[in-house]
Amino acid sequence: MEQAAVEGVLKQCLSEEGSKLQQCLEAMKQAGCKVGPDYFKVMPCGALRAVGGYSQQQGVILCHDQLQTPSQVTSTALHELLHAYDDCRAGAGGLDWADCQTHACAEVRAAALSGDCDLQQEIWRGKVEVTRPSSWFDVHAKCVARRATLSVQLNPNCQGEGVAAKAVADVIARCMADRAPFVPPPNG
Ligand SMILES: [Zn+2]
Question: What are the beta bridge partners of residue 187?
């Protein structure tokens, strides 16, 4: 997508009252973390081949040359912001991203809560077998495990055969149950 198009989608999401992006930013501010107006940066990432990224130093990066649809912009922005939130709530120094299980937990939460694994996105990727329908819960959980594993595999400390998949399997139940900062409505 063009840089201006990605910036437009991002601006709209950020201004949407009660959007998940807003809820997440609000939770970070309440926890005392700095999230200035230039916290999101839209840039071409070329050879990196990633749709987005997050670091404590740079905040959230969206790679407009790799992003292909508006819903992918929204879910990627939220995915990366959830990493920022997890880092923020871990307190001074943030999370130990070098630890495979810690990293796996963050990726599980980001995949589960960002919309990365919404049915629409899985169909668009061609990952849903329409001829062999399975429950939505299965599609979602499989997608979360698959995408979290792919991300953890990029961690230099989690390179051995099956190491990333095992880290994800070890934490997936606990980390999918942690829906912060999105809490269910009272009595809901
Ligand atoms: Zn991630």
Answer: none
Give the tens place of pLDDT for each residue, 65-93.
999 999 999 999 999 999 999 999 999 89
Tell me whether strands 40-43 and 59-63 are parallel, antiparallel or unpaired. parallel
Query: Which one of 2, 80, 107, 122 is the catalytic residue?
Result: 80
C-alpha angle with apex 3: 111 to 120, nearest 5 degrees? Answer: 35
**Structure token pair of residue 164:** 């990333």
* Per-residue model confidence as pLDDT tens digits over 133-180: 667 778 899 999 999 999 999 999 999 999 999 999 999 999 999 999
Check if 161 is active-site.
Answer: no
- Residues whose Cβ atom is located within 5 A of ion ligand 1: 107, 110, 151
Give phi and psi for 131, each to the nearest 5: -80, -20
> How close is the Cα of 187 to the center of ligand 1, in Å?
32
